[in-house]
Structures are given as structure tokens and as C-alpha cells.
Amino acid sequence: MALNCPEKQRLEKFLSQNLTAEEERRDWMRHVERCTECRPQWEAHLLLRATSTTLPSPALPPDFNFRLRARIRRDAAPRLDRRAVALLRTYWLLASAFSIYLIVKIDWPARLKDLGVPLLLVALVVALTLVEMLSVDQARRIAVWLRLAKGGPEDSPRRHKGHEEFRI
Amino acid sequence: MMDDSQVIAEFLKTKDPDLFETLVDRHKDKVFRLALSILGPAHPAEAEEVTQEVFLLIYRRLERYRGESRFTTWLYRIAYNRAIDVKRRARYQRPHLGTDELLSMPDPGIRNPLAAAVASEKRRAVLGCLDELPDLYRSVLHLHYWQEYGIEDIAEILGAPLGTIKSYMHRARKRLQDCMRKKGLTHGSELP
Predict the structure, then answer these.
(1) Could you tell me the pTM of the whole model?
(2) Interface pTM (ipTM) of the complex?
(3) Count: domains in chain A
């Protein structure tokens, strides 16, 4: 927003420092009372200054660094867990593939084949593998979708609404 | 004393946690105050949480920092975006608490009950109007008036040119004043 007031330099100056000289004070006040551009700026400035002095000034607690260090250490640990999970999932996939291979290759008695036992076994292996591949979050989301569990705030579509705010 | 980029280079070579702590010590207060200016004066715990998360993120991503921009620009940008995310989540999870919580705190400067009531009403209106401003405008005003940062510092923190910050300040003050007028409360132009 560009101010058109010829006194905008003075406004800038007075917004960033206190007025000390009495004559300067009075002169500026005369201008502010007349000027429709400077007046709102000046009034808001005074309001903000007065209100800000009443606000608390919190500081970081002295153990901030200590807690941050602990958190960094904790953060490093789950990486190993993630690797272990990935490894376990790979084993599961290999074991499932091998089981299915065996089920298909076995020479099933005709009676069992007629009952669909090999197919059932393959379906069971596939189902178990799928469950094993899901993370806790994914399982929770499926449970919510199947209405087996209550949805939390994370699941609400409202969370994904767009926002109008400027983002750097 | 080593500057930030030297500390980072040394840290990436040695992984010495003390070097990372040097960076934390240098910048934690500014990051905290930036987070506070976005989340509001009634949320110091959330601002501290944001500060921790920002440094945790920095720790994880420091290898990706190539020094193309200043470290502080990168750091404050992450802090700003993180605080905005937290504020949005907080808005969804619960209604605004800030103004009411702040108003329950006594203003130590006023003894006369009538003056205190008027001041409290005005304070409520200003804080209410500040809450209504877009995040960026409110942050700029909080940083300047409450956290007492100069315009140059704010420009550095937000990674924007000086003129842009001045323009935000003008617009923010104008909007605040309009809001106050709508509420029938103006300060009058007496000088402090």
C-alpha cells in the first residue's frame, strides 16, 4: 500500500522511534489530526504499542537443549526399526511366494482339489501377507473405512480444506 | 568465531553434537519468538514444541543444505511454515483460546478500576482484531510490537524485501484500525 501523504517520511520515522522534542510532537499531532492517511496508521501504532506492553514475554526453558538432544537421540532410534520392518516385510513376501509355489506344485488328491483346498490356501497366504504389509496407520484407516473404528481428526476431510493465508 | 556455514561444514564432517548445539544456541530464541508471533502470546508451549521440531528437522536435513541461501533464511522459512501448520491444526482441533486466556492475565500497569475496565475492553478489541488478521500480517505486527524486532530483522526472518515488510505493516495497521472502528473503539490520537 503506497501512502500518498507528503509526510510519509515523517510517519515512517515516528513509527520507528519515540517523539521527544515538544515542538516536533505538536507539529506532528497537528498533521495527524488532519491527515486521513497518517491518522489510522498512527492510531493503530499507539494501540499496538500499548497492548504489546501488557502481553507476557515467555522464554525458552533452560533445559531446552537437553530435551532437544534427547529427542534427536530418540529420533535416530526408529530408523533402525524402520529398517527392521522393511526386512521383515521382505521375508514375508519371499516366504509367501515360496508357499504359493509349493501349494501350486503339490500333487493334491483329487478330493481335496475338488473341495478347493489349494485355492483356499493360496487365498489365506495372500491375505496374511497383505495384513503383514499394512502399517498400523493404514490398518486404522481401513478399519475406519469399514466402520469398525471411530475416525479421529486426522481422517476428517475438513483438515484438507485449502487456506487463504500467504505461505512463504 | 566460526560463522554458521563453517559450523555446518564442520558438523557434517565430524557429526559432533556440540557443533549442532552451537547452531541451536545461536538461533533458538529467534525461532521461538517467530513461532510465538504466529501462534500467539497464549501459546508458549506450542511455540517451544515448534522450535524443537524445527531443530529436529534441521538436524535431519542439514546434509541437504547447500549454502545457496543464508542458513538463517532457510531456518526461519522452515520455522514459519511449521508454525503456520501447527496453527492451522490447532484451529481445527479447538476454537481460538488466545484472546480469552490473555485477558485473564491482569495488566500490572493499571490500578484505577475504571481505567482498568476501559483498558481491558480496548485490549480485548485489539487482540480480537489481531486474531482476525491474516497470519502474515499478524506475525509481522507481533514481531515488531511485541517481540520488538526492527523492520530489517523481520525482513531477514521472513526472507522478504524491506519495502514488502513495510507495506505489510501499513496494511496490517490499516486493517487493525478499520476493525477497531467497526467495534466502535479507536484510541484517539493522543501521544504516549
Answers:
(1) 0.64
(2) 0.74
(3) 2
